[in-house]
Amino acid sequence: MASTYSSDLKLELMATGENAGTWGTKTNANLNLVQQAVAGYQAIDVASGDVTLAMTDATISNARNATLKFTGTLAGNRVVTVPDSIEKVYNIVDGTNHANYTLTIKTASGTGVLLCEGNNYVVFSDGTNVVKLTEERIWRTVSAAETVQSGANLFVETNGGAVTITLPASPAVGDIVNFVDSRYTFDTAALTVGRNSSKIANATSDLVVNTEGAAFGLVYSGANVGWTYTEK
At residue 115, does pLDDT exceed 70? Predict the structure, then answer.
């Protein structure tokens, strides 16, 4: 009976009596694959196109890494695809500049997780979809117009002029974005929050914030009211 391969990590499962004289080599190869799954790290540039990750039988493969960091400035909406039929946990670092585009990690058949620029994630693939377990929301500074994703924590600088931040398109209930007037200049150069076709606080208009030192969050509560304040 020939060797077979495990369903998730694609380790070589040697049959009794097979591979005489090569068990040491093949066992060490398996241990290296386990090491990659437990501790492997790889940075992957996603700037220029979608990326399909591979999990190859008994071979070091990018989809087997424990931690993946996505890099580059996006030139369009990007998708990173992990193989179907693989059950695995991933640590994800979104180290890209979204440049007003989106980045999604998914299986070939699933809808996946929309990532937020600068944030860190633990996700898992159940073989048919990628699901978010946790998200570490990292504060970052913006000083120019930008369309953001759910989970954005923003220090907004308007000392160089008014800034418009546009909320995510097609938000899901529970999506959240936080804003801070980090230079205390909203009173002289306002923040405009673009609603991107959703209501903000039950209003069908963009939100203009001109209060010095303002700090607030918006959470999407559904189509009836749209984005609403987490605090006032």
Answer: yes
Domain ranges of the chain: 4-136, 139-229
Q: In what order do the strands lie in the sheet containing 41-45?
A: 41-45, 67-71, 87-94, 120-126, 130-136
Same fold, 4-136 and 139-229: yes
Q: Give the class (CATH, top level) of 4-136.
A: mainly beta
d(Cα 101, Cα 21) in Å, to the nearest integer? 53
CA quadruple 43, 47, 48, 49: dihedral, nearest 10: 70
Identify the three-state secondary structure at position 29. helix
Per-residue pLDDT tens digits for 105-114: 999 999 999 9
Count the Cβ atoms, other than its own, within 10 Å of residue 87.
12
* CATH of the structural domain 139-229, one choice from 3.40.50.720, 3.40.1390.20, 2.60.40.3550, 2.60.120.640: 2.60.120.640
Name 18's Cβ contacts closer than 8 Å, sequence gap at least 6: 1, 2, 3
What the block records as the tokens of 133 is: 């377990």
Percent of the chain scoring above 70 in pLDDT:
100
Q: 22: pLDDT confidence band, cut at 50, 70 and 90?
A: confident
